[in-house]
C-alpha cells in the first residue's frame, strides 16, 4: 500500500517589490553626490541673499546698521522656506535637484527605483534633508549627527544611503538619459537670476 501524501501547497507568485539582493541598481558615486550637493548649496546661498537684501533696507531705512530682531527672524524664516522648497519642489517635479541634473543623477524610491519619485516621498525627503539634519547641524555636539548623515553612504552597503535616504526610503541613481534636463536647468537658473535681479533692483530703489 502506498503512503498517502497530501498535495503540495501552490507556489505563490513572485513578488513585484524590488529587492536589493535580486537587482543591483546603478548607484551614483559618493563623489558625484558631494559635488551635486555643493552646487545646490551655492545655489541656495545665492537664493537666500535675495530676502536679506530686501529685508535689511526695509528694517533699517536711511542706511542704519541696527536691524530689529523681528526682521532678522523674518529673513531667517524666508531663507529656511526657500531652503526646503528648493529641494522639495524639484524632487517632486523632476526627481532631482539642479546639482543632480547637471551631474546626471536622480532620486528614486528604494522599493521601486525604476519608477518616478512620488511627490509625497519627495517632500518627505526634503523634510528629512536638508531641514532636519541642517537644523540639528547648527546645534552644539548634535552637529556630529549631521556630519554622520552626510558620511553614512561611504560605508553603507549595498545601497550607499545617507541617513536621510533611509528615513525617506530613497536611493540616488545615475541617470544619463534624462530628456528634460536642459529645461530643468534653464528653469531653475532662470528663476534664480530673476530673484537676484529683483532683489538688487528693489534694494537700490529702497535706498
Automatic annotation (TrEMBL):
It is a multi-pass membrane protein. It comes from the Bacteria. Keywords: Cell membrane, Membrane, Transmembrane, Transmembrane helix. Its main location: membrane. The chain crosses the membrane at residues 42-61, 67-86, 131-155, 185-206. Pfam families: RDD (PF06271). The keyword Iron does not apply. This is RDD family protein. Residues 28-169 form the RDD domain. The keyword Transmembrane applies. Residues 1-26 are annotated as: Disordered. It is found in: Cell membrane.
Amino acid at each position: 500500500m502506498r503512503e498517502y501524501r497530501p498535495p503540495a501547497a501552490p507556489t505563490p507568485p513572485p513578488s513585484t517589490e524590488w529587492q536589493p539582493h535580486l537587482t543591483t541598481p546603478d548607484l551614483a558615486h559618493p563623489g558625484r553626490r558631494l559635488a551635486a550637493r555643493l552646487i545646490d548649496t551655492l545655489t541656495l546661498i545665492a537664493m537666500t541673499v535675495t530676502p536679506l537684501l530686501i529685508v535689511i533696507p526695509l528694517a533699517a531705512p536711511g542706511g542704519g546698521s541696527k536691524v530689529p530682531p523681528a526682521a532678522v527672524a523674518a529673513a531667517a524664516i524666508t531663507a529656511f522656506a526657500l531652503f526646503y522648497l528648493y529641494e522639495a519642489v524639484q524632487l517632486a517635479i523632476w526627481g532631482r535637484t539642479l546639482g543632480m541634473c547637471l551631474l546626471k543623477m536622480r532620486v528614486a524610491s528604494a522599493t521601486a527605483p525604476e519608477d518616478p519619485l512620488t511627490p509625497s516621498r519627495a517632500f518627505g525627503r526634503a523634510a528629512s534633508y536638508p531641514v532636519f539634519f541642517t537644523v540639528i547641524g547648527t546645534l552644539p555636539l548634535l552637529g556630529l549627527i549631521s556630519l554622520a548623515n552626510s558620511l553614512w553612504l561611504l560605508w553603507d552597503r549595498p545601497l550607499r544611503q545617507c541617513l536621510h535616504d533611509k528615513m525617506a526610503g530613497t536611493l540616488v541613481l545615475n541617470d544619463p538619459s534624462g530628456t528634460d534636463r536642459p529645461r530643468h536647468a534653464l528653469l531653475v537658473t532662470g528663476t534664480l537670476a530673476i530673484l537676484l535681479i529683483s532683489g538688487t533692483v528693489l534694494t537700490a530703489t529702497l535706498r
